[in-house]
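step=predict obj=Methylmalonyl Co-A mutase-associated GTPase MeaB n=322
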Amino acid sequence: MAEVAESTLQDLEARFQEGDIRALARALTLVESGHPLGQALLKRLRGKGQAKVVGITGSPGAGKSTLTDRLILEARKRGEKVGVLAVDPSSPFTGGAILGDRIRMMRHHQDPGVYIRSLASRGALGGLAGATVAALNLLEAFGFDRIFVETVGVGQSEVDIARVADTTLLVLTPAAGDAVQAFKAGVMEIADLFAVNKFDLPGGERIVQELKSALELSPPRPGGWRPPIFPTVAATGEGVEALFEGLEAHHQHLLAHNLLEAHRKERARFEVESVIQEWGRRRTREAEEVIAQVAQGLLSPEEAAKALLGLRPGSGNGEGPS
């Protein structure tokens, strides 16, 4: 059995290295499902590429998918090979997802230089699927020059994108209270650039002024970066070229100040944490008796968690299994 698995792994890796798009799709499916073959392949391929990773976040209806579609066009004009990971919300009841972002990017489906993959969030509160970083590593290894990661769009819990992407773009819209929500949620602190999309609607200039005022009071980002604000109308493409140049300027800033390595390390930390969280979710689904004891007041949540983790009853958070 081990020999068959190794043979299958070598065959998949060889086709992947040759640029077979079907091998990439197969690898992504294996990784997303947590299959051992996918994990083994990922271990061999990790760190092979160095793409420019852009995270695109913002509230639902801000036009993230349409804006991403336009940014893909800009990247292709510059000869870049583009990968897109679109994280769609999962149903808390069925676990299913609409995976509808591809619909808004259909113009690219025949372009061999663009690969779009939808992922289900599977209950991840940070707006990212647990397998997102693993999929991102595979796209990098496949040789994409730029990768866009578009998140679910769930507001205050959507700060995880800053731990995964090299550059984080926050998309806001006028007349929807987005700016105020951003200030409340602290999402202002994660954005490297701001796009005020649907700028042709009333209130666009007001949002820009509010953002400028808020940014004047916030501390500068690492290396002294000051987040710029770009008015855009994704439906027509207005302002998108300038926004793309802003993304490129931030990447050059990261290179100039040797900040990319710290980004990649934080991405790996997020990936490990995601695996631990997913493991914990599985354990709690299987531990009905322990959960029932918590509901009855026989165990505290902390005692139950320690029991599931195999920790000693009196051990602290930093101690390992007994």
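step=describe
The radius of gyration is 21 Å.
step=end
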